[in-house]
Each structure stands twice: as C-alpha cells, then as structure tokens.
Amino acid sequence: MNDTSTPARPPLSRRLRNLPPVPLAISAAVTLVLLLGGALYWRSTSRVNKVALAASPKGVSVVEARAGTYRPAASYVGTIQPWAEARVGPQLVSAYVDTVLVRPGAVVRRGQVLATLDCRNASAESRAVAMQARALEARQEAFAHEAARVGGLLQGGFVSPNEAEQKAAESVSKEAELLSARARLLRTSLEVDDCILRAPFDGEVSDRMLDPGAFARPGTWAVTVVDRSTVRVTADVPELDFAAVAPGTAVQIRALATGEGLTGKISRRSPAADPATRTVHFEVDVPDPSRRLPVHTTAELTIEVGSAVAASEIPLPAATVREAKASVVVVEAGRARRVTVDVRGESLGTLYLDPGGLAPGTLVVTEGRASLQDGDEVATGAAAAHRPARQD
After folding, report:
1. Does residue 356 or residue 133 have the better pLDDT?
2. Burial of 286 (0-12, 13-18, 19+ CB in 10 A)
3. Mean pLDDT over residues 332-359, rounded?
4. CATH number for the domain running over 58-69+309-385
5. Do 299 and 254 touch, CB atoms closer than 8 A?
6. Positive or negative CA dihedral for 316, 321, 326, 327?
7. CA 177, CA 142: separation in Å to the nearest integer?
8. Of 112, 136, 348, 358, whose Cβ has the fewest other Cβ atoms within 10 Å?
9. Do 324 and 342 form a contact (C-beta atoms < 8 A)?
C-alpha cells in the first residue's frame, strides 16, 4: 500500500537559513527604501498649507492718519547776491598791468591799492600840461596888469578906446587859454589816478582777471570786489503771485551751497513785471556779518500763502496722487477698502488730505497696497507675523 501523504515542511527559521544571502539582502534593501520613502512623504505632506492663499489674511504695513493743519505755500528758486559788487579796472587809459596785489579771498578796505598800471606816458603828459598851465597863468597875469594900466591911461585920454579894448580882449583870451590848460591838466591827472586801481568799498576779492604783463584798456577789469556783510536773496515770480510777494512778507530761505536755513522778510518788490518774461522781481535782505554765505549761489524760497486749514496727515508713499485727488487703501474691521480723498497739499514728504474723506485715526496701508482688492482680509502688526508661509 502506497503512502500518498504530503511530507511535512521544515520550519520558517530553517527555510530562511537555507535561503541564499543575495535575495535576503535585496529584501532588506527594498524594505528600507519603502520605510524611507514613507517618512519623506509624511514629512512633505505634513508641512503643506491646507488653507488657500486667497482666503488667508494678507500681511500689510499700516500707519494711522494724524490730525494736523495745512497752509498752502509757494516755492521759488532764487539767487544769493552780494550787497555791492564792483569790477575794478581802468576807465580812461590803456596800459600794461604793472602789479596785481590781491588774489581771490583777500579782504580789502576802501581805498586800498589793488593793482597798478604802467602809465609813464600819462605821467609825462600830465607834467607837460602842468608846465603849460603855469606858463599861461604867468602870461595871463601880465596881460591882465597891462589891460589895467591901459584902462587907467584911457581915462586920462592918453590912449584910444580901441587900444584899451584890444588889451582887455587879450587878457580875457589868455584867461580862457589858462582855463583850458587847467581842464587838460585835470584830465591828465585823472588818467594818472586811473593807473592806480583802488578798492571802492570794504569787501573781499572774488575774481582776479589780469596778471602783471597783461594789457588793460577801458572796459576790462583786473579784480572783482564784493561786499557780503549783507546779502540780497533775489528771485522772480510769475505775475499771478504779485500780491504774495508784498514787502514785509515772511520768507523761509534754504541756501543750497551750505544747507543752512534762514528766515527773512521781503525788503523790496519791483513795481512792474519784466516785459519779456512777465515775472516780478523781489529781494530779501539777509544780514551776514560773519560772511558765511557764498554769493551767486542758489537759494530755495518758501512763502506761505492763504490761511491754515484742518487736514489729515499721512506719508506721501501711502497714496497715489493724481491732480487734486489721492487714492489710499484703509483698513476697516480687518478688511481693505480703497477710497479717494481730496488733497489739501504736500510738504516735505507728508501728504495733507481732506479730513472729511479720511478721518484722523484711520489706519492707512503703506506697504502691500498694490496687491489688495476691496474686501480683502488683511493682517497688520503682530497678526501678520503668524501668517502661514507659502511652500513650494
């Protein structure tokens, strides 16, 4: 009788021991890869934001509108001019420059010699005219005495009236020649004096145009002298602002060369506009005893016009301004809302708006407003720091 029963299988531990080593290593590697993949998948899915970005609050920076006042102001560009300026040069003679005794920056006093010209010809001519004048004076005295004696003889009938008249006429003629010689002497004396260039007032040398050896003629100048003890800030404004620059009006001045801020009042205003530009000239006198302001430099002038009005103040970057309207984004009950407000004015980076359209205390978005729509939920301050980060 045949035994058809299935033989018993060996235990699992014996079968594993009987497996070749290569399949066992492959099985272990596959198991490890599966475990590592599962861990990475769990890690990636656990950090994914499940909340839609459109539904989450948008982080923005806000500022609170402040209550303030705004007074319209007009700004102009002016020039700082010296109180007095003189270009010193010859007026009557043409000659070579002999010496120039000053350079730019030198402080000079009135009457101080600045330069000299080589005027030996003028000096010689002046001496010659002086000698001629002395000779004519002597001859005129002789003719005058002779005319007086002839006049005395005429009374005694010793000379004819015609002879007496001729002697008197000769005396008058010589007197006229003497006066002419004295006039020529005065002219030559002026030419000699013109060879010595002197400072016309106390001031400073700003330019030196000629050096020794150069040829100077009337109309050229050797040095320029300016008086900065008081400077004149001058500007020209459109004719529509004629009333705004009335004498006595307060002016805020900023010197661009030094960055210094000054205050003053309009000292004078032209009564007429320039025919070509239709602008009105005005000046502000600013005492400067320390001479700290350079002249012929640019100054910015600000004049307040009109009366002060109530306004809401916000930073200029927080709004988009078009003409007299400003578009801002405000936060109400945690949501953004765009509003359009009338503009009062602008000054030094601050925008002044109508408080009726933007009440003081309203939160205004300064950063992030470009991506906001009406009704978007926003997070400000500490709430914005807890906004879920977007994961790629």
Report:
1. 356
2. buried
3. 87
4. 2.40.420.20
5. yes
6. negative
7. 14
8. 348
9. yes
